[in-house]
Please model this.
Amino acid sequence: MKRASTAIIGLGAITGILSFAWSADHFPLYNLSFLPFGIRIFFVLDSVLSIVAGILFILSFRLFTIKIIYLLEVVYWWINYLLLTLTRVFPAPLIGKPLPTTTGPALIAFVLDILLIILSTVFYLMIRE
Model:
């Protein structure tokens, strides 16, 4: 069995911490009472998925041989990014209008999504070799 390199472990830890930060940005959105309940539940479920993604990245020293997990994480972060950007241009489900782009959580999520796409892609390419 191959051993994980220090670079893979370090990158996994950094990406995992950023996943937790993304989740911390989205969990409080559940408390926004003006949002429909379906969207509030979506924020909670997406935050839980982000926590799971972070745990999987941190456990990369054990799981790096299961490459499909990290390919799915790249896809997950792309989906989050596309949902964030498309709901700013097109009407959001259950609301019927585009969401505001200048709110704090949206800007933080945008930056974190881009960082997580880059880091998870680099991580996947590193373990693929």
In short: The helical segments are 6-26, 37-58, 60-63, 67-89, 104-128. The longest helix spans residues 104-128.
